[in-house]
Amino acid sequence: GAHVLFLPPYSPDLNPIELLWKKLKELLKSMEARTRQALDDAIARAMDLITHDDIVGWFRHCGYKI
């Protein structure tokens, strides 16, 4: 079954999703989308650039044993 792990408040360094948001923001900034359609396209491209290795690395960085 699943094991619930409660994180201490204000600890983004222990939460892998924060590393995802950081990378997405960096990618989107570099794509310089200036219209709604360009932003939608940039988000889709940025999501495609997130790899399995990125995700595993973020979890390991946060101390998860996977």
TrEMBL record:
Q: Which InterPro entries match?
A: RNaseH_sf (IPR036397), Tc1-like_DDE_dom (IPR038717)
Which segments does the entry list as coiled coil? Answer: none
The GO terms describing molecular function are: nucleic acid binding
**Sequence ranges assigned to domain Tc1-like transposase DDE in this UniProt record:** 2-39
Give one Pfam family.
DDE_3
Report what the protein is called. Answer: Tc1-like transposase DDE domain-containing protein
